[in-house]
Amino acid sequence: MALWTDKSCQEIAAVVATKNAVLVTGLNRSPRQPEQTEPVLYALDLATGNRMWKQTLPAAPVAWGLAVDRTGQMIVTLLDGRVICFAGN
Questions:
Q1: CA distances from 68 to 2, 11, 37, 62, 73 (A)
Q2: 3-state secondary structure string across 5-16
Q3: What is the pTM of this model?
Q4: CA angle (15, 36, 62) in 5-degree steps
Q5: What digits encode the pLDDT tens for the residues 16-70?
Q6: Which of 39, 59, 69, 86 registers the highest number of CB atoms within 10 A of its CB?
Q7: CA separation (Å) from 6 to 9, 58, 66, 73, 81?
C-alpha cells in the first residue's frame, strides 16, 4: 500500500532517500511545448510526500547523477559535464 505518490517531475533522472526527505532530479516538460524543458532538483518530505523545496538546474541532470554526503550536501551531475554541490541542512 502506497503512503503517498508524487507527479512533480515528468522525467525522473535520479532519486535519493535521506533520513527526512526524498531528493529527485529530472526534467519537467511544458504541456503546450514539450520540447521546452525545465531541469530540476527537488525535495519531498519523506513522511507526507509534500514538496519541501525546488531548485532549477542550469542543464539536464545525468541519469543516476545524484548523491548526498553525510553532512547533507547534495551533488548533482549534469549532461553538459558540470557537477554542482548544494549545501545541506
A1: 25, 20, 25, 15, 6
A2: CCCCCCEEEEEE
A3: 0.87
A4: 30
A5: 999 999 999 999 887 787 778 899 999 999 999 999 999 999 999 999 999 999 9
A6: 39
A7: 8, 23, 18, 23, 28
| β-strands 61-68, 74-78 pairing | antiparallel
**Residue 6: which residues within 8 A CB-CB, separation 6 or more?**
24, 44, 49, 51
| Beta-bridge mates of residue 54 | 42
What is the full DSSP assignment across 7-62? Answer: -S-SEEEEEEE-SSEEEEEEEEE-SS-TT-EEEEEEEEETTT--EEEEEE-SSPEE
Full set of structural domains in the chain with CATH: 11-86 (2.40.10.480)
Please give the Cα distance from 76 to 78 (Å, whole number).
6
